[in-house]
Fold:
Amino acid sequence: MKEITSIIQTFLNNNNKTEPLFLATVVNVQGSTYRQPGARMLITASGEVVGTISGGCLENDVIEHTRLMIDKKAKVITYDTNAEEDIIWGFGLGCNGVVDILIECLEPDSLVNPLLFIHQCFQEQTTGIIATVFQVEGDVNVELGSKLTLSNDGNINSNIAASNLQQALIKDSQEVFKNQCSSFYKYQFPSGEVQVLIEFIQPLPNLMIFGAGRDAVPLAELAKYLGWLVKVFDLRAIETSQERFSMVDEVILTRREIIHQQVAINDYTVAVVMTHNYFDDWEVLKLLIPSQIKYLGCLGSKKRTEKLLIDLQENVGNISQQKLDKLYAPIGLDIGADTPETIAVAIIAEIQAIFKNRNGGFLKHRTQPINQKNKMEAVKID
Structure:
């Protein structure tokens, strides 16, 4: 997430200048590739580059393409690394994959500017859709690089000329919303076809840390380094915690009696409870376990957690297994963490695994592809 937030910030910093800004986006891949569809790289006129679209092998060539785009019309460059000789004579990828990169000159005030749309989703903590045309064949009234954006509230913007394609994209976007996963579609017209990446945009993870001890500092720092939104709740209400956690988005000085008034939760909210006070932990868990929170971790031993849950059940009634399944305690992946820094790594890794629906095991033991491969859905349009 840090990469895309850095790209957006650089765009906003340069948006009022007269020089062009170019955006390179991975729009399609086949086989093994370093980056997946949706990876982006911003190139400014001054030569500043933010983001990556490969392991460092394609960036210079893409930058060179932007220098030659005098007409500023969007183009797609295909890099094929399947051939064995590519390792020696080509870009040195050796990935045995094909990557399609869309390069476009950004229009600062365009209603379908992808960076502004993603920025909006992040600010409003909502999901969204960006549908991008990356291949056009035959006689079809559709421009390469044209887009449709669809907000979670149903707001639609599009510069796609073909109204029948717009309607098809709106319909198929509902399926992408439902699955919460980007997909590829091939729209077959009587006189040609169009390929589109329908990208599912998620808001930034929203991490709430309950407890402002020194051991919470590495966790807050690592989460912010990843570009997450981070709030620290200090139940001891000590003013010095404001300075200690200057890197986070907000430090909230609170108490058990009022904390329920200060917590806002959505589908992308995760929480780590590490107050080191049994009764504070109890109060926070009582508030969060019944909520829609995506992940809830509690620092402490298994025996301590079991006692907390027994006390909770006795005081607030039966807690469903579905709610209990969101509680992770002891917290973190099993990496042998025994310092505040390594414990922070274990916690962040566990949260990342939850967001990606993974188990957090060794990749060398994984029998499935590392990245999900979406097939191209074919849709006929009259």
The chain has three domains: 1-108, 109-203, 206-363. The two ends are 40 Å apart (CA to CA). The mean pLDDT is 90. The chain is about 30% helix and 25% strand.
